[in-house]
Amino acid sequence: MGITLNALTRSLSVFHLAASPCNNCDIEILDCLTPKYDLERFGIQLIGSIRHADALLVTGSVNRKAAERLKLLYEQAPKPCVVIAIGGCACSGIMFRDNYNFAGPVDRLVPVDIYIPGCPPKPEAMIAGVAKLIAKVRGEKA
Amino acid sequence: MRLALELILFPGFAFCALAGMVLSWLDRKVTARVQWRVGPPLLQPVYDLVKLLGKETIVPRDAFVFLAAPLIGLAGVTLVGLLVGQATLRPDLQTWGDLIAVAYLLTMLPLGTIIGAAASRNPLASLGASREMKLVLAYELPFILALAVAVIKADYALSLGEILKVQWRDGIAASSLSGTLALLIAVLVTQAKLGLVPFDMAEAETEIMGGTTIEYSGAPLAVIKLTKMMLLFVMPALVATLFLGGLRLDAGAYGVGMGALKVLALAVVATLIRNTNPRVRIDQALRFFWGPVAILGFVAVVCATLGY
Amino acid sequence: MSMPLTGFADRFKTRALAWEEKRARRLYVEIRPSDLLETANYLYKDCGCRFVIATATDIVTAITVLYHFAHDASGVMVNIRVTLDRDKPAVESLTQLFVGAEWIEREMWELLGITFIHHPGLKHLLLPDDWPNGVHPLRQDFRQDELPPPCPGRGAEENR
Predict the structure, then answer these.
(1) ipTM
(2) CATH code at C12-137
(3) Helix (H) or strand (E) holding A52
(4) How many domains does chain A have?
(5) Does the CB of B32 have a partner CB in chain A at under 8 Å?
(6) CATH number, domain with residue A43
(7) Residue A113: its chain C contacts at CB < 8 A?
(8) Is A52 in Cβ contact with B217 (below 8 Å)?
(9) Are C146 and A98 in contact (CB under 8 A)?
(10) Measured between alpha carbons, how far is C23 from C42 in angstroms, rounded to an integer?
């Protein structure tokens, strides 16, 4: 595996993309950056611009307005970029699947690399998901 | 020939880049410790830069200016590192006026930032560029006053090497009243030049989504990040040379150790200021630098002329 | 009922269609749609209440709109209900009194079809701009299969 891809797994810049969530998953994502879980020791940091993103953290059941923006943002992120679907809504839409405003789930619109279910998923679940993602990118067994 | 080797290896580009990466790791580690976290491993800046080299570079329409702008900043910072390093290695070489050259070369970084942001064709980038312009206007005045104090204290010598030699003979500049005031001003100006909180409104992460660097990706972004890391070494080195006596090679290992400690201490001070302050607005920064800090600068210059 | 709102009771109790002091600080009042502006104006300007939010429901026989006002000093909440005709629901817009009602009235219009007279601009808030006209999702007779499909996906049958 290339040296730059290896460096990518050790220094992930995440972009938080909230596609009409209830914000519970967003709060849990922020929890991961607090001192108790401290994701920065793995090199993961939150960045502001989509052009700096290595990972898209997508939360929320994507509604019609957010669907166009999600596709646009995925195109704007420089590749290689991984997509992480966080929460039950992003993975499959759960109870909102038949809603009039539902335009998701996320993998209908952009390719997803890792699914982290939960409503909301605990920070431990998210860290486990990111660890599996890193193992998958490096080609190791999860 | 020797100049080319010095420019590229030591004390030029390679040395400044390495020292900058170590100091940037130290900055993140101290920040993490202050926040009761663990912080990233030592090689983290290397991972960040290598990762960026593997990402695709997306450019707007005016690609040439967009891609060339970060290189302007890199060139400026490398040259300042070279000048400070040469003055430390060979202070007897009377390179007249290299302090003036340093002051001019240090403005190449904000210039590159502003041009690059303007070439980004993004409204948030132009907002960041306008803030960067105002910030440079704000801190250049107190910076020149602090440099003036250093010059006056060194018997009106404009060469970095001469300033160092006078300090080794008479005691460091910061041991006098005007020198202490000028050191204080220099620390504040360093904070603004480095673009660290409380003066990071040009690249405000959560507010304007990256500001001046919003459209950069891949290798140009790696150049920008590397330039910022190098400045984190070069600015404290400059301030240590002007006000704290720099690195004294003829004092042997003790001199080298003390010199490194001075640079380290200034970098840690910048980090601690960064961790204990909120971000200020650009008009507050302007009022701050042209108000209290500039007045302090004038007082320092007057004291220095009077001999205090 | 707390002191500042006794003036409200004196002026409007006789004109109200229903008046219930459900608990110590909860007042439920039903009024005619034509009285809405005067009631809201009195509550906002003279009693000093804060407009919290408005809610609307399609009960099968009619469409009701509830306006919730809070008197923060005493903790009293006044809920005003107007009942509108189901076929052409229309009521005066509260943006004539305070700007804060603009967005909630846009939302009530797009989800239930209530027309707000003298509203500065009734356009979509939560639904996309190309939503079909006259289709209001929270109505009881809303049929989902009348909707156009959402934006196209990426077309891959399986992920990556």
Answers:
(1) 0.90
(2) 3.30.460.80
(3) none
(4) 1
(5) yes
(6) 3.40.50.12280
(7) 160
(8) yes
(9) no
(10) 22
